[in-house]
Structure formats: structure tokens, C-alpha cells
Amino acid sequence: MSLFRKYLKAVCVLVVLGAVPTLAGACPNPDAAANSMLSETGVGLRWGSSVRVLAGGEATLESCPQVEIAHETSAHFSTQPALELSLAGMIGLGIELKPVRGCAREFLILSSDGNWYHRGPGLNGMVPPVVLSAVRDGPVRLWIGTAPGDQCRMRIQVSTVAAR
Asked: Is residue 109 assigned to a domain?
């Protein structure tokens, strides 16, 4: 058997076993473990909490279901959420997610009620604060998009606000 055929066979086996990411596997995955976690109550977030996260990745949204809400994005995301918030006591409250500093250009958010949200860059090219009103108790997952090849560590300020 030629060296090329051995290589091709090995690659096929890896793809079948899921060891090599396929196009569909490069999308943001809500079931993947987050890089950072924060468990908090609505009252506990009244004055905010700063969380260190890893932003960016190698995945684009071109072939992902999330592309429907993130039209014409050029940002690169990780398949894993950058942050998972486990929220409780959120009756009458929403949350604000604000990048403190870093390379964030876009946010992709999966709320606890199963809805996807996208926030693109502001006038300065960076993502402005995002407010989700009337958030339910449960997990909120956040992916942070960056310019291609611009993965970085950054901080996100999470605080509660009155629901609108």
C-alpha cells in the first residue's frame, strides 16, 4: 500500500472517530464545556462580577446554524463557550455583559430560554455592552468572536439590571 493511501486511510478513520473537526463540528457547540464558569444569583450580581475569559478561536459561522442571526460576520469563534453563567434568582432581572478590555469584536449568546443572540462590533470595531432583559434562571452561554488569528485573554463584567 502506498504511503499516500495509508495517510488517506488514517485521516478517514480519524474523521469517522471524530478526532478531526469537520465543518459541522467547527460551529459553536452549546453542549461543550465552557472555558470559564460563573455561578451566581441575581442579587449577587447587583454590583457586578469580573470574569477572565478566553476570546476567539478558529471557527467561522459560515456553515453554522447561528449564521442566520450573525449575518456577514467575519469574526472567529471557539467551538466552546468562553463563559457559562449559571444563574438563579433572576425574577424581574436582566443581565449586562460588558467587555472590560481585550480583543472582543462580537458576542454570540445562548440564553437560558434557548434563544440565540448576536451583537456585532460598535463604531470602534469592538463589541459594546449587551443587555438581556428578563433572563430566566439557568445557564447562559457566551462565545466571543475576534478578528482572525486574534485570540486573547480578556475580562467580561457581568451585572444584573432591572428587567424591561
From this structure: yes
* pLDDT per position as a tens digit, 112-133: 999 999 998 887 888 899 999 9
User: Are the CB atoms for 88 and 42 separated by under 8 Å?
Assistant: yes
Cell of 49: 462580577
How many structural domains are present in the chain?
A: 1
Domain extent at residue 58: 25-162
Tens digits of per-residue pLDDT, 27-68?
899 999 999 999 999 999 999 999 999 999 988 888 888 877
Phi then psi for 154, rounded to 5 degrees?
-155, 175
> b/e for 99-137, b at 16 or more Cβ within 10 A?
beebbbbbbbbbbbeeebbbbebeeeeebeebebeebee
